[in-house]
Structures are given as structure tokens and as C-alpha cells.
Amino acid sequence: MRRRAELVLRFTRAERWVHRATAHVMGVCLATAGCLYLAPLAELVGNRPLVVTLHVWCGLALPVPLLLGLGSRAVRTDAARLSRFTPADWQWLRAVRTRACQTRPMAAHRPAGKFNAGQKLYAQWTLGSMLVILGTGLLMWLTHLAPPSWRTGATFVHDWLAAAIAVVVAGHVRMAWRDRESRLGMRTGLVERSWAEREHSYWQPVRDDPADAAPTGDLTG
Amino acid sequence: MDTTHEEDRGTPVGRRVVLGLLGLGAAGVAAGPFLQRLESGLAERDPSGLTGLLPGNNGFRYYSVVTSVPERDATNYTLTVDGLVERPATHRLADLQAMPQRRLVKDVQCVTGWRVPDTPFEGVPLAHLLDTAGVQPGAKAVRFSCFDGAYTESLTLDQARRDDVLVALSLQDKPITHDHGGPVRLYVAPMYFYKSAKWLSGITVTDEVQPGYWEGNGYDVDAWVGRSNGRVDAPTS
Lengths: 221, 237
Fold this sequence. Notes:
The complex is a heterodimer.
Chain A lengths: L6 E3 L3 H25 L1 H7 L2 H14 L2 H6 L3 H11 L3 H15 L15 H25 L6 H31 L1 H9 L1 E3 H7 L22
Antiparallel strand pairs in A: 1-2
Helix pairs in contact in A: 1-2, 1-3, 7-8
Chain B lengths: L12 H32 L33 E6 L5 E4 H5 L4 E8 L5 E11 H8 L7 E6 L5 E5 H4 L4 E7 L2 E2 L9 E4 L11 E7 L31
Parallel strand pairs in B: 1-10
Antiparallel strand pairs in B: 1-2, 3-4, 4-7, 5-6, 5-10, 7-8, 7-9
């Protein structure tokens, strides 16, 4: 049970919608990719033209939630935060590296603003890989757009990048799985102040009334 | 913008990461054909088969245009030959096995890019089946139908009479499995693999070429490997 007085607003409704919509579209892209690419799944599902259509249209839809979300000031602010590294982020990266090298129980201090350096890198990877997978997908789909050697190259990049995206998304889900408060933050928009102070010490949450952000029913998590 | 304190400024790592990925992507597209050949070459010399797990791997991929395909075997498989022929016929699997066979070992090239080297196919030359049925004067083409209920293919009569076009009964010296289009599939060695219709159930001689399933979706009717579909692969036959 989370006490409302101790909750701070982490993600607005628009931010949560962008995250959820992108996640769903990406999920369909990965699932249909599996059905086109992995022989056992392809044999199970068949129906290639339908799966291709679904894959293509969900692929085209990938950047749409983010583009719509840019209409929200909160989304724009967080996009700006995610795009820049502060001295704290470099320190966070050094701390992670130190900890990976020496398995001392004393974890080095990992300072972070609203987003830590790992989250920033993940967001930047997501945007960059989304653009590349979309571009190569377009080259494969609109076959008269470019010479055939481009299509071979695009197929090559698309295949490898898709595998990389699947691995990174799995890592993203694993991180979320291990941090309940972080998950609740993305689902309800609210996190406990003590969690925020521990995990994101340089973040100063806006002192909004949390009641704006979520219906009370969600608060129990 | 009312972003708070120190997060306003800082190194624009985001821009660098995104531009870096775009650059890598473009370089990958440019170097892709070379890297793809490198990967295929590696896979050919790899006895462990581990490279088969890599993205863009070599090997057959399963394409079906319908949800499920019925299974047929020696007890219930038939191949009909009809249309503009003197003697329409229905062959069982045993009938086809009793006919003269030809074995071909060539590369298989898919229009989507994958290529399987030195693949043995064996079966009845299509020309033999056409001669047995007796093609009528005025016939120009052959249409193929499949027991998946949806796929069709076509060849001109001249293409169909080539000696590297088979009604294939075995693949890699084993009976063709269901997943590979068995028990009987077409094998058109010199063309992209979509011409080699799986689950072959009918051969109809016609007076004009009727474009097949993928041709209806924008692929070339005359699908010579390396000379069609905007591709430049090495010819397979």
C-alpha cells in the first residue's frame, strides 16, 4: 500500500501514453518479425501476406506516438533531459564500470537526475535504432525507391538490427521486472518520494498534486 | 523551457548517439551486399552449423501464403495434367516415381536474398510429362496449381520444356517433406525460387501466360535469376 502523501509525480498521462503506445506497436513488430523470420513460428502461423501487412503498418506507426506526444510540454521536457549528459551521468557510468570490474559489496555512488545515464542511453538507442529500422524497412518495402544492391544492404541491416533490438528490449523488460517502484511509476505516473531520493538524487520533482496524475484506484498498485 | 537546474546544459550525447546510429545504418546498407557474401561464405565453411543461427543466415525459409496446408502422401496425392492436351491424366505418387528421373545439383536463390548452395533436386522432367500428355497446337503456356488452395505459378511452354525444370520428388536426396512443399513440388532451376511452386497438384496447358500468385503482387513473370526483379545475383542454371 502506497501512502498518497509520500508520492511524487514522475510521468504525466501523455508520457505514459507515449510509452505504452510505442511499446504495443514495437511488440507487434517484434512478434510479427518472429513469425516471418523464425522457421518454427513461420510454419505455425503461415499466412505470410497478412503477417507482412501487419508488420509493415506497425513499423510505419512506430514513431507516431512520440511525434504526437511532442505536443505535450512534459514529453518535450523529458526528451530534452534524455538527450543531454550532465557531469552526474558521466559519474554514473564510471560507477557502473567500476562495479562491473571489482565485485566489491560497497556499490559506488551513482548519482542521477530524473533519468540516469543508462536510461538516457536506452532512450537514445531507441530513437536511433527506430529511425534506422524504419529507413531500411522502407527500402525493402518500396522496392522501386532504390537500386537493388541497396535493398540487399537494407535487408542485411534490418535483420541484424532487429535481432539487436529484440535483445535490448528484453534487457529493458528485465530491468523493469526487477524494480517494482519504477514499474508503478510508468503505470500510475507516481513514485514514492523515498525511492526518488534514493534512485534519482538530483531530480527535483514538480510539486504537483499527485491526484491530477492518476485516478485514486491506481494508488494501491 | 522550465527544465530545472543542471539538466538544461550538458553534453549533447543524445544527438551523437542518434546520428552515430544513422551513420552506422547507412554504412551497413552500403557495405551490406559485401558483408552478406562474407557471412554466407563463413556459413558454407562452418561444420558446426552455428552460423545458421545468425541473422540473415543461410538456408531455406518457410513461406506459406495460407494458414495451414493439408498434408498429402503416397496414399492420397495426385497430380492432374489437363488443359490443351491430347491425353489429360491424373498421376499418383507411385506413377511419378516410375517415370524417368533427372537429378540436378544447383544453387537455390530466393528473391528476398537468401541463397542455398549446391542443392540436389531429383524428379520427372516437366517436358516428359508434357510429352506424355501430348500438347495441342496453339498452346503457349503452362499454369501450375497447388493443394494449399491458393498458390499458382506459370511458365511459357518454351520455359517449361527446358531440361532444368523438374516435377521434383526429392530434395537433398530425401523425399520432399511437407514443410518444403512435399510430396511433390515444382523446381525451376534457372529462376527465383518463388517460381518453384510447393505442394504441386495441377499442371494446365493454356493458350497464354496467366501470372501466378506473387506476380499478382508485383514480382516478375519471367523470373530469371540475376536478370529480373531488379536483382543482380549470379545465375543458378
